[in-house]
Amino acid sequence: MDEIPVESTFRQYWRPVLLLVFSAGVILLTAYCLQNGIQTVFTHIYYVPIILAAYWYQKKGVVFSAVLGIIYFGLVVAITGYNPYNTVAAFARVAVFIIIAAVTTVLSLQISVQQSEIERSEKKFRTIWEHVQAGIMVVDAVSHEIISVNPAAERLTGYTEKEMIGHSCHRFVCPAEKGACPISDLGMTIDHSERFLLNRAGAAVPVLKTVTAATIGGRQVFIENFVPVSVAETTDKK
Most buried residue among 28, 125, 196, 233 by CB atoms closer than 10 A? Predict the structure, then answer.
């Protein structure tokens, strides 16, 4: 029989356990305060499990908050007895609990939608990045250090991304002396221009290279993409 990892079990149950602990603590505190004539202040502690439940479980969290509110209302009536003022005040607090839970749920749902859209966008980008046949290299526009390369660039150069990151792009593509970069230093535009790529064996492979300036996370970069001349010529003939 396979054993369930302790870490996996912890991740699965820590939220409901935390909510149970908070809720039990709030209920015990409520009973203690009401028995000692305290009607307010402690009720603010209810917001902790209510907000957590609504954020984590959304619509189910609203139901949880309503149940917790009913328990609070029942304790008020059972311990302090029927008092119109206390009863109305307790009912109003229960309504506030539910409203707060509902607002938190709406915000949580909006965050979930945004996160899903971001995940779909990242997945789409990653699929294109990993399967496009052109080599792509993202380079810092100032230092010319390589930030990232796609699998096609790895295949064309014979180096892994880990081996290339942090090194100057001139070491692999369009060899040139430092300070003589056609793009940043000489102000040239490279669009389907024939350049050379140096592979791991030291051979110069002719490629058609295009460079586009962009900003990623506030950082100025060059996005360089290149295909072997032989592939480009075949594509043109078709």
Answer: 196
107: helix, strand or coil: helix
> What is the distance between the alpha carbons of residues 72 and 64, in angstroms, rounded to a whole number?
12
**DSSP string computed for 29-57:** HHHHHHHTT--SSGGGGGHHHHHHHHHHH
Q: Residues 6-63: pLDDT tens digits?
A: 555 666 788 999 999 999 999 999 999 989 888 778 889 999 999 999 999 999 999 9
CA–CA distances in Å: residue 78 to residues 68, 98, 217: 15, 21, 58
The answer for residues whose C-beta is within 8 angstroms of residue 157's C-beta and 6 or more apart is 135, 149, 164, 172, 197, 198, 199, 200
This model's pTM is above 0.70: no
Assess contact for 224 and 183: CB atoms under 8 A. no
Give the number of other Cβ atoms within 10 Å of residue 209's Cβ: 23
For 132-237, which CATH superfamily applies? PAS domain (3.30.450.20)
Residue type, 179: G
What tokens does 4 get?
A: 């369930």
Q: For the chain, what are the domain ranges?
A: 6-128, 132-237
- B/e letters for 56-71, b = 16+ CB within 10 Å, e = fewer, are bbbeebbebbbebbeb
Residue among 139, 159, 154 at smallest CA distance from 202: 159
